[in-house]
């Protein structure tokens, strides 16, 4: 019995997840069989073209209709669409997979998480970097105590696609439509990775101080006018974890020369790790007793997920994280199992982002207890 | 009218090409429509399982039967299988795509190439690294004269999966079955890349000196016996190009710590380039007027093939080279167009490999005129 | 007429500066001639041995006596010794060169700076990293507008010599003796470099938020006892510059695997830079119109100070920064010229460090106006 | 009783060695006391200026006179000056330190080595890269068997100061004056390092094949004329060691973008190493049981020579290799001890270089038995 899947959204994320689903049978033969049943959107023409290309059986412009007819609902629309349809699906007992950040506000994220707790079905939040083999390998090292007590966590996500002040205004520059800027779009990934990697050893973030910055206040709209930019171009934060580790976090869309530099560094009493998304097959590892950071190509047969792919040294790409993520989520759906990162994780990250925003506004350290 | 495709071979290369074909519709919508029609092999059970997984309509153990029924034939079997069925297909007017190295001997490669010239249909040789975006971007720079006159070409392909003298004997250690060792398996890629990149500026390799080495003479067979290793573990060569450039080439399966280090470096009067397969999204470029090597992430929208994939900085993997390769080959088949690298290229590389072997044996520089 | 120089301190910094002075005649023939006249310390025996080795004509245990008899006084003692003898020298009209951080408190730093303003002679603060050729070259690029408007400044100084909780207690773990921990010892360098590099374009730091952390509360003393650690092992800070740039700063002595990783990164509207002390001959430069960071070996004949040393590619070391620093300071002394970094710079940095400490205590963003 | 030292040559190498001697007392207090007694050259004015700057007591234009009056004679003149005065000194029982390559021809190198054997005093050949701490640390690892059986040795020395075809002709482009080009100037260093590092495990080079190339046949002289270039711009070689390892070697002065890239890579059955002169404080080490190359900063207190310098992470420069070299040589002179690399080593390398040249000429592999 194949699972019928409905997907809201057919642009960047829609394509990434559709591709992931399409690749499961060849590489993850034990994944549940699925039908890409229905693609949801507003623009019928674009939707129809996308459904053809992405391999969906049919389309609809009515999310509720889709939700009723599927075994799993992917909510990949913009931020402000997340709460309503995620809750609707969960209330109907349909497992949900929702893009990050979970919601425009903590309150909405809480409502979504409440719905998840009530529903008793998987509700995943799309922190795909948890599914990078190097990251999972790193997580294993930390859990095995190879780093000892955690002292430092450092995360940054640098891009430069807004560095040109003349780059055109888009919905991503608007607070109403996008919720936030670099903080929500990039920072959410970093905070989640930090939680994922050191959560068990170092605990949650207990206090945080944050700062936002918009470097370009208004941008041209393309018709000779300019329009105000109402989201942040960059954020900075320093944090304390329950277990005593300290963390520093940063993201920017104005970091000239950086394309997708999501870098995580963790230092502990016994060892250290470093990872960068631009070289996602690699992990830097200072192990106990060694003299420096070792550059590990995490592509061996016994590395996480790698036995499904290619021989050692045959690197995988960014999109493979979605295949792993979908494999885990759809397996959980089929077996009615737990899936992580869940809405709980989405909510936890949302609270940290909100605290950063609060601290930016009031200039004070914010407690997260 | 979809193209019916037959594929001989269902292991590593069979999987890589089947995956590539499966991904074309979503990412290269203008690629010809194809049917994965028939999978060819000898072991019926394994074949049937593979056909299911790789998405083939049917199977056969008779290559000739397959050839008769398809619009394009992929010869992905071991080396010694290449000549017979490739020639059979070409004589039947069926376009062929053949794995590298083209044939066990230069003579057979010549026969295959003759058949190609007669047939007037595309016959491709599987040098997939020509389809790495960074390599194609490099090729463009060289063609545009950005490197000026070419002085140095350096290529090496280092792996370490045979570094353990106790690693078990396999068919890849046997000259009869494998043709050659590191030279044919890895060196073929390097020589082809060198020809591809600098051929127009520096001409062909005109003289070469070579050296082979087998570090481990016999290996355990798993049943308490040992068996002789009759192929090389490593080769070294130095060469001269028609235009005066010099080249040095090397490959090894005993290079401890190297997983898939296919590195190419080219230096010219105006600029230089460096590329490594383990970081295949990156190109090192010393441009005229700059002071050092620039690390370029070749993932921008206007980089070769990238507009089909993801936004800047979202890296692709090794397997994507096969998608590009299949896109080009199948498009050529449909439009009855030229495809490169063709059997001509396979033959040219084969001649260089043979000259290296000859030089190893007689201790003399070998002319390739 | 040679300058008589007196030096207080004969350990790490004493050796670094004595070596620098000794090398001037051979490499900077236009430097003023100097006598290493008198070495000042408390332990007569050790002092005498050091004077022999470091090439001083005589020794004294009385700083005041030394000050009276020299043309320039180097105050290289521990932090708490800085104010008294620096002020005494300046009041006597003797130029002073003082180690960093300038003083234990802002108040004392202000008094020292007042003395400097009154004295009208050079008073240098030992921020030697301003004299790394790559840093000076970077400064030139920024001044020439090659980076455009400054958006991001990122500085960190990571070491790991205290990562072992069993490492013995030393005076550097004591607030009374050392003033502060990583903040004063390492952070002072980072803050000064940030000011030096972007001060003219981005202005001074106007607001800052900080956090300190002591990971190991007490350490063994070697006699079976333990003693309290009263300084920080690490600090974190995020800042805003007058011109709108944002900065993040960090240092640690517990960053496992990092030996002397003083890394500075600056991103602007047109270009970006990156520098790390562990590779001090190199500068990473993303220039306008290029596609990535260029790795520049700053060892060409027209790079700052390099014509005094060796041909291109023949790298210099950490100690060379002291030669350049002494060359500039002693030249300023001889010609009664300005020297930077002066006590003004030392004071400015001290204020930033104090603001970080204040913010750590009260949990609030601190304004530096 | 201080050693009187005479030095022939006062340019690049004269400066490097004079500086090294000058630094010994402060950093190597157990080094023999020396007098920089006499500087030898032909141009009296330049010589006198140099003697002042480099700290020599007197000058002479008569090498024989100098040899008679010193306890050690440094022969740092151009290649063709090496045999005569080195032999004269050795015949007079005066220890000699001679620049590399040892002599213009193998025959002369043999005569020099004969003189050394007869004299029974130290005669050093200036392969200073043996004295890089990272290289000595590497040597220790190899001797301790940490790499196991040696399979691959790879050495290259790339520079780019002749990449511009319009760069002016100099004596270095002339065979009579310079002996050879990249082969003798750069290749000598590489061959010696290979011998030093793996000689005991892998034996000597037993067979070699070589190739020379002059990219620019004539160069402008500055007066509107051009003059023929009679030396090589680049060499390539592949070799076999007695123990079965293979080696590839290369050097160029036309390698655009490379300043002083002397890179050595060694791979063995248990581990591997990589080193580059442009980052001379670092060693790449793949150790048994690890998963990748570790980047080691060879600046710890127990690393070779480092206890004489600065704390961990405070990097040293190219010139420090000369201090170590002089320390060892002068200590050997004082104690009438062995010094390595001696003229024996200079001769062994000379033979390899000659074999490369012979192979280039006759197109055949050359045996070195």
From TrEMBL, chains A, B, C, D:
**Which key words tag this protein in UniProt?**
Oxidoreductase
Q: Which SUPFAM superfamilies match?
A: Glyceraldehyde-3-phosphate dehydrogenase-like, C-terminal domain, NAD(P)-binding Rossmann-fold domains
Gfo/Idh/MocA-like oxidoreductase N-terminal domain mapped to chain residues? 4-122
Q: Name a Pfam family for this protein.
A: GFO_IDH_MocA
> Which domain of life, per UniProt?
Archaea
Annotated GFO/IDH/MocA-like oxidoreductase domain ranges read 135-273
For whether the record's keyword set contains ATP-binding, the answer is no
Q: Does the keyword Transferase apply?
A: no
> Which Gene Ontology molecular function entries are recorded, alphabetically?
oxidoreductase activity
UniProt cross-references to PANTHER family, sorted A to Z: BCDNA.GH03377
Please give the name of this protein: Gfo/Idh/MocA family protein
Q: Which organism is it from?
A: Halalkalicoccus tibetensis
Give the taxonomic lineage as stored in the record. Answer: Archaea, Methanobacteriati, Methanobacteriota, Stenosarchaea group, Halobacteria
């Amino acid at each position: 019995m194949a699972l019928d899947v409905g997907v809201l959204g057919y642009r960047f994320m829609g394509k990434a997840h559709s591709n992931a689903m399409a690749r499961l049978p060849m590489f993850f033969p034990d994944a549940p069989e699925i039908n890409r049943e229905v693609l949801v959107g507003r623009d019928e023409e674009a939707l129809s073209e996308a459904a053809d290309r992405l391999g969906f059986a049919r389309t609809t412009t009515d999310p509720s209709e889709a939700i009723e007819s599927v075994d799993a609902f992917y909510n990949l629309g913009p931020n402000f669409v997340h709460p309503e349809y995620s809750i609707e699906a969960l209330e109907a007992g349909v497992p949900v997979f929702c893009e990050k950040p979970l919601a425009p506000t903590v309150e909405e994220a809480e409502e979504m998480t409440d719905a998840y707790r009530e529903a008793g079905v998987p509700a995943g939040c799309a922190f795909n970097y948890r599914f990078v083999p190097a990251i999972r390998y790193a997580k294993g090292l930390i859990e095995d105590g190879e780093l000892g007590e955690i002292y430092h966590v450092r995360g940054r996500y640098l891009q430069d696609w807004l560095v040109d002040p003349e780059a055109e205004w888009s919905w991503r520059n608007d607070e109403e439509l996008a919720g936030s800027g670099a903080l929500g779009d990039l920072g959410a990934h970093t905070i989640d990775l930090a939680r994922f990697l050191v959560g068990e050893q170092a605990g949650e973030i207990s206090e945080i101080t944050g700062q936002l910055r918009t470097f370009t206040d208004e941008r041209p709209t393309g018709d000779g006018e300019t329009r105000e930019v109402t989201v942040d171009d960059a954020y900075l934060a320093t944090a304390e974890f329950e277990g005593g580790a300290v963390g520093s976090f940063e993201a920017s869309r104005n970091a000239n020369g950086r394309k997708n530099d999501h870098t995580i560094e963790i230092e502990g009493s016994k060892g250290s790790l470093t990872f960068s998304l631009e070289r996602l097959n690699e992990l830097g590892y200072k192990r106990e007793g060694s003299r420096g950071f070792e550059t590990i190509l995490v592509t061996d047969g016994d590395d996480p997920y790698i036995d499904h792919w290619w021989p050692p040294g045959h690197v995988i790409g960014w999109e493979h994280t979605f295949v792993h993520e979908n494999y885990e989520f759809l397996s959980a759906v089929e077996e009615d199992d737990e899936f992580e990162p869940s809405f709980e994780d989405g909510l936890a990250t949302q609270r940290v982002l909100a605290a950063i925003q609060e601290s930016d506004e009031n200039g004070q350290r914010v407690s997260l207890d």
